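We were asked to recover a plausible sequence for a given structure. The inputs and outputs are reproduced exactly as logged, with field labels preserved.

PROBLEM: sequence recovery
POSITIONS: 539
GIVEN STRUCTURE:
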């Protein structure tokens, strides 16, 4: 009996995770089409770009023209379709930004005003205008607004169990006049206009979500009138009246850091500075091991930083052909570089060692970067090998993947450049040998073996719900993507991809466990999706 119950439970869970209806863009050539979970095309139209945005919404875009072609500041102008639950509800919108209020209301915004004739049907004459649509593609207001805010939800839906029914919306137009609306999610429309085109005093606006009451003051004909709007459980009533003084005191006591208001949306909360309770600035730090210090033309051997009485001169005699190269950064060190007749050597705690290296650079307290016979490596102050002197080049940060108008570009970090015989220790060391790249950690242990064409960090900005694949590697014609790395990653890079994996959706379409990865070519052209199980959604 228990085995049967367990089977039914797992079967039900699998249906919840992957048995429900969802949609995935399928790339065919240079167009994307929307298909359902069974692989069937649900929209015949192909889009230049098509992506899942949020909830059950997709945005499909068609490139209309390119402004300033061939220049870095060239940009694409799109006409966008909004797709909801597999159906096109809005066609060829000129807006360039979309967001959603509780998966019920579409907020369309134009951040530019290129080709103003496209915005005439919406009575838009300036940039940064907002139009609201419902899930049937109908406009909710008579015209554009400048700002919009969600105040609260209330009531119980008659169509969806455990869901709200009403949404309180506050808008501000281009004359700085406010309107307060109640949106009915069951009917997909504005059910009530509470206030229309009034002046609300910002300093007197305050919501009481716990009790379902909104307090504010409006100004009409130089007269200020306090108002109270009750909306708890979907019962609406607007009346004159101010917040009770006692309730003001109680709310101030409950929320002492609140200094903002619903109009500006600025909370005004400053976080307290944090200090560990165990931190004691008067407690001495542990004394370091003996270290070296340069004083005039002498090298001192210091026993510790708190007891200089035991300092002694390290007997190092410098000839006229020798000169010290001190480390500029203020760090304790157990080795000092010196130069003699074009060769570099180390003065360590035991004294002066032979100058046999073509170049030496400070890297850490007791670590040095070596250039010898056109090969690079890392040694300790005692001459012990930490990284073999066999590499064509060393760099001390991970390369960055970025975009230019020509496509994807890999740039070297500035931390790879030396500064006055010093390299900054960033915790990673990129090595190159015979055209292949590898990565070592701070402890000089391998992270990635020297067998990749490149290892780079994804520095291309993206918007939610997508996430960046943090680290990208290439070997031959295969690409690998990792969210993070640690320890020896030999053989742990996962499955190879034929295109560059730049972004991923953790729980695609809000389905737990469904992970989709976006693939691009080196020209930064979208090639299609692939699941973490290897299912391809492109030809």
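RECOVERED SEQUENCE:
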């Amino acid at each position: 009996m228990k085995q049967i119950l367990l089977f039914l439970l797992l079967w039900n869970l699998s249906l919840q995770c992957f048995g429900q209806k969802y949609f995935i863009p399928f790339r065919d050539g240079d167009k994307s089409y929307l298909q359902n979970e069974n692989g069937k095309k649900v929209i015949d139209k192909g889009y230049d770009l098509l992506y899942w945005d949020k909830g059950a919404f997709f945005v499909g875009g068609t490139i209309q023209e390119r402004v300033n072609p061939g220049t870095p500041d060239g940009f694409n102008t799109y006409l966008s379709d909004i797709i909801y639950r597999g159906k096109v509800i809005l066609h060829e919108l000129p807006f360039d930004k979309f967001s959603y209020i509780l998966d019920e209301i579409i907020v369309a915004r134009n951040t530019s005003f290129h080709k103003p004739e496209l915005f005439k049907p919406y009575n838009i004459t300036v940039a940064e205008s907002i139009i609201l649509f419902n899930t049937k593609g109908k406009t909710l207001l008579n015209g554009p607004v400048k700002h919009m805010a969600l105040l609260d939800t209330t009531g119980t839906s008659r169509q969806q169990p455990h869901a709200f029914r009403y949404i309180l919306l506050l808008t501000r137009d281009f004359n700085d006049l406010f309107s307060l609306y109640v949106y009915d999610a069951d009917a997909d429309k504005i059910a009530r206009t509470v206030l229309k085109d009034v002046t609300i005093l910002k300093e007197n606006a305050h919501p009481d979500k716990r009790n379902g009451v909104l307090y504010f003051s409006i100004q009409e004909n130089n007269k200020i009138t306090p108002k109270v709007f009750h909306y708890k459980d979907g019962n609406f009533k607007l009346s004159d009246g101010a917040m009770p003084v006692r309730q003001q005191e109680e709310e101030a006591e409950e929320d002492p850091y609140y200094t903002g208001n619903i109009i500006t949306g600025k909370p005004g909360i400053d976080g307290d500075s944090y200090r560990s309770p165990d931190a004691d600035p008067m407690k001495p730090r542990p004394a370091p091991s003996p270290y070296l210090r340069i004083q005039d033309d002498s090298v001192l051997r210091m026993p510790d930083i708190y007891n200089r009485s035991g300092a002694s001169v390290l007997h190092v005699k410098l000839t006229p052909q020798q000169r010290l190269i001190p480390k500029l950064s203020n760090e304790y060190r157990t080795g000092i570089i010196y130069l003699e007749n074009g060769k570099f050597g180390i003065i360590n705690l035991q004294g002066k060692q032979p100058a046999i290296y073509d170049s030496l650079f400070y890297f850490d307290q007791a670590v040095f970067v070596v250039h010898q016979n056109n090969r690079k490596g890392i040694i300790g102050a005692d001459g012990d090998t930490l990284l073999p002197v066999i590499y064509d080049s060393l760099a001390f940060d991970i390369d960055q993947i970025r975009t230019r108008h020509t496509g994807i570009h890999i740039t070297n970090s500035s931390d790879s450049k030396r500064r006055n015989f010093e390299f900054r220790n960033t915790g990673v060391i990129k090595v190159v040998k015979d055209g292949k790249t590898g990565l070592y950690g701070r402890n000089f242990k391998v992270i990635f073996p020297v067998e990749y064409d490149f290892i780079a960090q994804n520095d291309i900005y993206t918007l939610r719900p997508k996430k960046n694949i943090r680290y990208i590697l290439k070997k031959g014609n295969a690409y690998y993507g990792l969210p993070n790395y640690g320890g020896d990653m030999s053989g742990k890079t996962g499955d190879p991809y034929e295109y560059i994996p730049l972004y991923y959706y953790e729980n695609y379409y809000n389905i737990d466990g469904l992970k989709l990865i976006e693939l691009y070519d080196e020209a930064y052209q979208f090639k299609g999706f692939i699941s973490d199980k290897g299912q391809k959604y492109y030809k």
